[in-house]
Amino acid sequence: MNSSHAQKQTVKEILLSLHEKFGQNINSLEGDPWEVIEKIDMNSRIISEIRTILSDEHCDTEGQSKICSELLEEVFSDFSLAMYLCSIGLIVQARMSVRRAFEIGLATVYMWDLPHEYWGWRSGDQDLSFSAMVTHLNSCGYSEYIKHIRGGDFACTICDQSKFQKIYRELSNTVHGKISELPPLSPERFLPNRNGVIDHLTLTASAQRAVIELLLGRFSGLREKIEDAFPAIKRN
Prior knowledge:
By secondary structure, the chain is an all-alpha fold. Helices cover 70% and strands 0% of the residues.
């Protein structure tokens, strides 16, 4: 009896085939996407360097040490993973990883000065609210605190609230199943020349830079050290 169905494959064969197909997408990337990928890689390395500097020079408590060794390491890893996932065409998964890194990056600064929030989140299963964190970092009281620790002539607002909320909203749309920014669910969604990969990579780079600027604004002397180690940051 003839059958029009393809020969059944094992799960292993299917996964290996998918792995090969997605891997081919990297070779299909040309021109502008690679420029943005280079920026993402540099931003990830900057975040890693920030983690090292904070760990060596700014940690006064056990909680702050754990924030460096755990949270900032997660931010680095998630952004790096997102770069790879986006490059092979897994846009939804990439944007979910970016959202996680972005939220943890914001939480790093938020919880640095609020140890009860950190320990409640880490050990007490207490949830963090993105809106509450952004609001706190833009409050008059926190701005005065930053002005006090950074010096009276320092621009005391370190968190661009509208930028953070805009990026978070775009990333959250993906997490919540909204697909308006994605091609139809078809093979085209996974092809670099059809899925708008450069826009998704650019969003990743923007999320990274927002987190980096937040960290550079919070800690005295950090910007100078990072600009010395990564001169290209001044041009991006």
